[in-house]
Amino acid sequence: PFEIVVANRDITVQVPVGETALHALARAGIDVMFSCEQGVCGACVTGVIEGEPDHRDQYLTEADRARNDCFTPCCSRSRTPRLVIEI
Ligand code: FES
Fold first, then answer.
1. CA gap 9, 5 in Å, rounded
2. Which residues form the 2Fe-2S ferredoxin-type domain (predicted)?
């Protein structure tokens, strides 16, 4: 489990094991655009400000990952207890 803070909306969402970040955000009323929900299309790519995503997609390149400034909430999780994002 980890938490996501949506910095620009002042909202914190808990993401339990078994729920995607995308669904947890939707539960909190935050709609992120998405399509494949499998980490392939890139539609859901969201900005990361703080924390380290646990990338589980096949969309972001190594360079994208190295910048540590975005993740795919449809399938990726977090290596840090908290991920601060901007939508
Ligand atoms: Fe396609 Fe997330 S919805 S990569």
1. 9
2. 2-87
Torsion of CA 43, 12, 7, 30, to 10 degrees: 40
Report the atom number in ligand 1 closest to the C-alpha of 22: 2
CA of 8 from ligand 1 middle (Å) equals 22
> Can you give the pTM of this predicted structure?
0.95
The Cα–Cα gap between 34 and 72 comes to 9
Which two tokens mark 86?
A: 């901007």
As beta bridge partners, residue 7 has none
Pairwise CA distance, residues 63 & 67, whole Å: 6
Which structure tokens are listed for 1? 């489990």
ipTM for the whole predicted complex goes beyond 0.95 = yes
Cα 73 to ligand 1 centroid, rounded to whole Å? 8
